[in-house]
Design brief:
This protein is an alpha/beta fold and about 220 residues long. The chain has a single domain, classed as Alpha-Beta Barrel (TIM Barrel). The protein is about 35% helix and about 20% strand. The chain has eight helices and eight strands. The protein has an eight-stranded parallel sheet with strand order 1-8-7-6-5-4-3-2. β3, α3 and β4 form a beta-alpha-beta unit. The two termini are about 15 Å apart. It binds D-xylitol-5-phosphate and zinc ion. The site of zinc ion (ZN) has 6 residues, from β2.
């Protein structure tokens, strides 16, 4: 079955003084990616629950919350409860078995996502991922927008796609970091189907056109 690419603009690259308008500029996208950083798991601080709740109230598209925080078991379900479509925690940040947080996220009505940093092996989490809906393969070190895509992680994307195609896993395979017109095709060919793009969308003169162009490139690479 041909996969349909989902495009998820990252609000991290938007103008935070105009969040409501910035969500409207990407209304044609599939998910709005919201990067929650706590200055502990990553060396940067962004926003948390109250601001995400305000974004949820105005966003024309579903929220994809990427939690780059310590103790995600404690905080993640709150993002599901406020209505996020998908809530992703980092495998490296979980203190216990990540399947517990997956269960809590699903119980609160969200898709459950597990993220792995570039240096984290996929094989350590294959069985655990059977309880998740989304695998986020980081294609940069988490913490900042505008970094260069790390092509060395593509074998993990390929392996994840094999596991999905073989029926072992049922997850979206999401890539995040450095996704733009020069890199999206490689990521799609390797097997990704959700594409986070911050600078490539909000840095464009016309974000709606950038979204359409990225979607067309990914769709061509997925069917080709
Ligand atoms: C990085 C964040 C990304 C970031 C992507 O830690 O998780 O979502 O916003 O930004 P670009 O697309 O500019 O690399
Ligand atoms: Zn992100």
């Amino acid at each position: 079955m041909p996969r349909t690419p989902l495009i998820a603009p990252s609000l991290l690259a938007a103008d935070f003084a105009r969040i409501a308008e910035e969500t409207q500029r990407v209304a044609d996208a599939d998910w709005l990616h919201v990067d929650v950083m706590d200055a502990h798991f990553v060396p940067n601080l962004t926003l948390g629950g109250p601001v995400v709740e305000a974004i949820q109230a105005v966003s024309p598209i579903p929220l994809d919350c990427h939690l780059m925080i310590e103790a995600p078991e404690r905080w993640a379900p709150g993002y599901a409860e406020l209505g996020a479509k998908n809530v992703t925690v980092h495998a490296e940040a979980c203190t216990g078995d990540p399947r517990g947080v997956a269960r809590d996220l699903r119980a609160a009505g969200a898709l459950a996502g597990l993220a792995i940093k570039p240096g984290t092996p996929l094989e350590d989490y294959v069985e655990i991922l059977r309880d998740f809906d989304t695998l986020l393969v980081m294609t940069v070190e988490p913490g900042f927008g505008g970094q260069s895509f790390i092509a060395d992680v593509l074998p993990k994307v390929r392996r994840a796609r094999e596991l999905v195609d073989a029926g072992h896993l049922q997850v979206f395979v999401e890539v995040d970091g450095g996704i733009n017109a020069d890199t999206i095709e490689q990521a799609a060919e390797a097997g990704a189907d959700v594409f986070v793009a911050g600078s490539a969308v909000y840095g464009a003169d016309d974000p709606a056109r950038a979204i359409a162009a990225l979607r067309a490139q990914a769709a061509a690479a997925l069917t080709g």
